[in-house]
Amino acid sequence: MPLRHEQVHIRRGPRSALPVIVAVHSTALGQAIGGCRITSYPHWGDALDDALRLSAAMTDKCAVAGLPNGGGKTVVALPPGATPDPAARRAILHDVADAIAALDGAYATGPDVGTSPDDMAVLAERTPYVFCRPPHAGGSGDSSTHTATGVVAALQAVCDTVFGSSQLAGRRFSVLGLGRVGTHVARHLAAVGADLVVTDIDSGKRRLAVELGAAWRDPDSALQEEVDILVPAALGGTFTPGTVPRLRCAAIAGPANNQLDEPHTADLLHQRGILWAPDFVVGAGGVLHATAVELHHETGEQATARVLGIGDTLAGILRDAAQADVTPAAAALALARHRIRRTTPAGPTA
Ligand code: PHE
Question: What pTM does this model have?
């Protein structure tokens, strides 16, 4: 298999002794961007797989969002079950910062699973290529609210396409994962009067279900719940040839990255008549907001307008897909490829 990434760096962090992986998939459209994920893996090779797939998805995410950026990702593989203490965490972050600094600006990072704006401030002690520091530290702050805003715009577009009305009130949703983004989305859906089912692997999140008046399910039941729209907001790999036949939803749209185990699963969903809104389209709100504010010096309102544009972008993709009788995934990838090719005449061959 050819290496499709421009650069992949793997280093045992000199301070943390943990595998620090930085994958730069593409800088064809500009500086590669993508979050820093610090989480447990059975083996560091799994973290490498994740970094390769997540960074490639960031290239598509940025291209479809119309950003002058490419895709990258940082992954630090913690041993299973590990929760580093504050000193160990700083050591990890400084290892990450040095790895990013060594790329001389080809790649900039942001928050992701297992990292926060405060962590971004620690990275910024050693490299300038960091988005989403807290506002008091000079950054645009937590990106998760903006990612959630984009998800809501995407849900409206999906409702409009599937049910002929963008109204979320009265529709039934199952939110899979109550991390930062999933929690914001669930709160919004509850506030507008949607019929809500939620789940998380952490049963402590059940309190939030009670607070929102949402039904709580275990993760597997929430996946199979009869709903209008499933909203995957946890880790990836949810949809597989094993899970697709058990789904009872009309559509899927959520911010989790890499929701499909492999690209062909988009065809399985299509064959079942389930509309899958590509994750790399739905989840672009965080990068859109952070780059608008930090790179392009736009106001909060201008940045939010860009995030809300995800609704129109997705609606256009769904229209193109219907017209060409292809999956939304195929239509979105065609759009990404077109943008990358237009900018780089000698660009990628695959
Ligand atoms: N976690 C974000 C994503 O997957 C990464 C990010 C956010 C990168 C904001 C830069 C700025 O899209």
Answer: 0.94
